């Protein structure tokens, strides 16, 4: 029998059944448990309803760029599918919806629907999302995990062979997203992010920057 990560339950059972030498019995054999199977899904730490009211947005305007304090709700839920691409690539995902409102008038200034996707074998992460301006993004990058902090960093631009930016003809012409970078940090019940969306708009290249600190609701 060939042991692949799929039949690790079998492997685990076999290892559980290995006779303990200290009981004066001879061990028969030991099957290595595949390390990948033991890797925990880091995205589990994102799941929950997060709220934050110290958001800072730098947005483009034709004359003076705008600084908009904001608050938001970010809802992240598990995707209950064992994703297997081409019977080969195992992925785990969570899906989310982010709604941002300006503090000055409570109007929604940003709405985003997407996924964080973990590639278990390579321990890499993807962030795919759509915003209702006719722009979709697939960015990818690193997972860093210490005992008390998870950091996810993703990036894409229009030369990215791992993803990229898809935008309507209007947006390509008038408000072109050239690159996108996002860092998420989760420490216990606190999630903080910074992101930079580089736009070519109003005849200039503009860094549209957003950051916020959110707390998980119990
Ligand atoms: C917390 C996150 C975000 C907030 C609060 C936010 C807010 C804003 C605001 C207030 C504007 C100016 C809109 C206007 O003048 O009508 C704007 C423009 C824009 N944003 Fe965002 N944004 C966020 C994230 C993003 C992301 C992630 C992307 C894309 C990757 C994006 C793409 C754009 C584009 C393309 C424009 C230019 C549209 C235009 O003014 O014609 N934004 N954003």
Descriptors for this entry?
single chain; 218 residues; mainly beta; Lipocalin; ten-stranded antiparallel barrel; 3 helices; globular; disordered N terminus; binds protoporphyrin IX containing FE
3D architecture notes:
The chain is mainly beta. It has two domains: 5-35, no CATH class; 40-216, Calycin beta-barrel core domain (Lipocalin, Beta Barrel). Helix content is 9%, strand content 56%. It is built from three helices and twelve strands, in the order ααβββββββββαβββ. It has a ten-stranded antiparallel beta barrel. A hairpin with a 5-residue loop joins β4 and β5 (108-119). The longest helix has 9 residues, at 8-16. It is globular and about 50 Å long. Mean pLDDT is 87; it is low at 1-33. Protoporphyrin IX containing FE (HEM) binds at residues 57, 59-61, 68, 70, 100, 109-110, 131, 133, 135, 137, 175, 177, 180, 197, 199, 201, 208, 210.
Layout: helices, strands, pairs:
Elements: H1 8-16, H2 35-38, E1 48-59, E2 66-78, E3 83-85, E4 89-102, E5 108-119, E6 124-131, E7 135-145, E8 150-157, E9 164-167, H3 169-174, E10 175-187, E11 190-201, E12 204-216
Antiparallel strand pairs: 1-2, 1-12, 2-4, 3-4, 4-5, 5-6, 6-7, 7-8, 7-9, 8-10, 10-11, 11-12
The chain binds protoporphyrin IX containing FE.
Residues 57, 59-61, 68, 70, 100, 109-110, 131, 133, 135, 137, 175, 177, 180, 197, 199, 201, 208, 210 line the site of protoporphyrin IX containing FE (HEM).
